[in-house]
Amino acid sequence: MSYKYHNPATVLSPKNSIEKVEVIFDGGIGKNAFSIAKVIWNGKIRIAIRWNITEKEWNEPLKINGSVKCVGEPNSRGYPTWFILPDCLLTSLLQENDNKSENGKIIREGVQKAIEELKRVRPIESGSPNKELNGIISTRNENKNL
What is the DSSP string of 76-89? Predict the structure, then answer.
């Protein structure tokens, strides 16, 4: 596989909003082809995520042979960008008892249902992002590592 992709540490778009990128996870090209970063977005620390390669790019001959770099998603006019995760989503996923707000409860229940459906469709593999997500939303009693 000769795919090439943008190093997430160099993804600084949109230029008017992003000042700094500190990569937390870079899955490269392959099974976990996404990246997560702590960024300075409009002057505030935020968590961002992006796919290193798009569904379409997996099948493009010039991307397969590495002569053209994959842009990934999201992107804007061919430039790689970041998706900023909403604070209420992060709070709902990371805090065990975020049932105080209606949004937190809805997000948490929705994510839990989606994970249960994924488990039925395909088993969670060791080291997969789905396994990590399952661990994040489990209760503190079930997962002492939170």
Answer: ETTEE--EEPPHHH
Query: How many Cβ atoms from other residues are within 10 Å of residue 70's Cβ?
Result: 24
List C-alpha distances in Å: 6 to 14, 28, 29, 75, 135. Answer: 15, 9, 10, 11, 29
**Residue 63 burial (CB count, 10 A):** 22
Instruction: Give the C-alpha separation, 22 to 103, whole Å.
Output: 28
33-36: Cβ within 8 A, 24+ apart: 33/5, 34/129, 35/8, 35/11
Main-chain phi, psi angles of 47, to 5 degrees: -105, 135
| pLDDT tens profile 65-115 | 999 999 999 999 999 999 999 887 877 777 655 556 666 677 677 777 777
CB 108 within 8 A of CB 41: no
